[in-house]
Design brief:
Layout (H helix, E strand, L loop, with lengths): L8 H13 L7 E5 L7 H9 L4 E5 L5 H9 L17 E5 L12 E3 L4 E6 L7 H5 L2 E3 L6 E7 L2 H8 L4 E4 L4 E8 L3 E8 L1 E3 L5 E2 L12 H10 L5 E5 L5 H13 L11 E5 L2 H5 L1 H7 L2 E5 H8 L1 H13 L8 E4 L14 H13 L3 E4 L1 H4 L4 H8 L5
Helix pairs in contact: 2-14, 7-9, 10-11
Length: about 375
């Protein structure tokens, strides 16, 4: 377990998690994801002033240089908790072994359309964009969409998993028709919108190449000397893999500065759910990520799994944060639904140390209001 030498929002999270366990008044973490809706330092400062305690950067949607620019422009300020005396902690969410689509123009995949997933290798910033096109089909008025996937291991997994493919946290579902070494042909069975670098999963397949990509390693190397940075590891399989990933993070830090950093394990796979007790002993914090869990398990099994995990919170050795559409309604509306408010209260009373706001603050229409609503139960 890492030792924290710097007083920051994560230390607050540990204290608040322990406070929840003893039922003293609620104080909790709010991790706000930065993005196109909050591009300026003043926007980030407004999130702090309305309740955010930490920031998250989804590095899968940023280049290495863009990631560093975001970190450097974070504001100094005092958040609603009144405990910040320097730059707020920023969680760099590393892609890890998670599969994502490459670069292409966002589009709607209609029911019955054909989708051709093709291996674009690592060239997902130029060639993929040129080849991700819509080709009108000659029959039934359907269309053929060519979408790039920069993960060769996805195609090896698909060859042994003749079932469905889920895109964008399960919002879109494809039926696999056939596949070869570098191409998978599918038919849309649940229509919806997809965009560049959205997640792609194969329910029922445990096969994937594990580890940190060269980009992940470069981000860690470039951010190693920045004291208020922590790392979230995506698609952790089990405690053994988490130990390997932690070693990989340390190995790319040539100055030895990463040691003692907060390491967050994101629970997004069935294998991780089964090994969550051991994973909790290897990390500083757990995130229960319902978006990817739903894509992996389906909505019914995801709900059952999260319910079971919630019942174990107080027995886990690390604080646990809830992520995934916590206040999703506020992505487009200025107020949460009553259902969201009740769910937030129940989650905090159950022992969650805080929540992650994703679309609500990254691309939503009311990012500051979302933070303010998330903080409504603070005492």
């Amino acid at each position: 377990m890492a030792t924290h030498a710097w007083p920051h929002a994560h230390n607050l999270s540990l204290t608040l998690w322990q406070a929840q366990a003893t039922q003293i008044p609620m104080i909790y973490d709010i991790i706000a994801t930065l993005g196109p809706a909050t591009p300026a330092p003043a926007d980030a400062l407004s999130l702090l002033q309305n309740g955010a305690t930490r920031f998250r950067l989804n590095t899968s949607h940023l280049s290495v240089e863009e990631t560093m620019t975001w970190i450097k422009q974070l504001p100094h300020g005092v958040g609603q908790t009144g405990l910040m005396n320097g730059p707020p902690e920023v969680v760099l969410d590393l892609q890890g072994s998670k599969w994502r689509l490459g670069v292409f123009e966002a589009r709607v995949l209609a029911l019955g359309d054909t989708v051709v997933l093709w291996d674009c290798g690592l060239a997902d910033t130029s060639g993929a964009a040129a080849n991700a096109r819509v080709v009108p089909a000659s029959s039934a008025g359907a269309a053929v969409h060519r979408l790039p996937v920069p993960h060769s291991d996805f195609f090896r997994a698909a060859a042994n998993c003749p079932g469905t493919v889920r895109l964008n946290d399960g919002r879109v579902e494809l039926q696999i028709e056939c596949s070869d070494a570098d191409t998978v042909w599918c038919r849309v069975i649940t229509q919806g919108e997809v965009g560049p670098r959205k997640g792609i999963s194969l329910p029922g397949s445990a096969f994937r190449r594990e580890g940190l990509s060269e980009k992940d390693q470069d981000i860690v190397r470039r951010s190693a000397l920045i004291p208020h940075v922590s790392y979230a590891l995506s698609y952790v399989r089990d405690a053994e893999e988490l130990r390997v990933l932690k070693h990989a993070v340390d190995a790319v830090d040539e100055m030895g500065s990463v040691g003692g950093r907060v390491i967050i394990a994101k629970i997004e796979r069935p294998e991780a759910v089964k090994d969550i007790g051991a994973i909790a002993q290897e990390c500083d914090e757990l995130w229960i990520c319902r978006g990817d869990l739903g894509a992996e398990l389906g909505p019914e099994a995801m709900a059952q799994t999260v319910h079971e995990l919630t019942g174990k919170l107080r027995r886990l050795s690390s604080p646990t944060v809830l992520a995934g559409q916590v206040l999703e309604h506020m992505s487009t509306h200025p107020e949460p639904t009553r259902s969201e408010v009740c769910h937030l209260y129940d989650a905090l009373k159950a022992g969650y140390a805080g929540i992650v706001l994703s679309d609500e603050t990254a691309i939503g229409a009311h990012p500051a209001a979302a933070c303010r609503a998330a903080a409504m139960f603070r005492s």
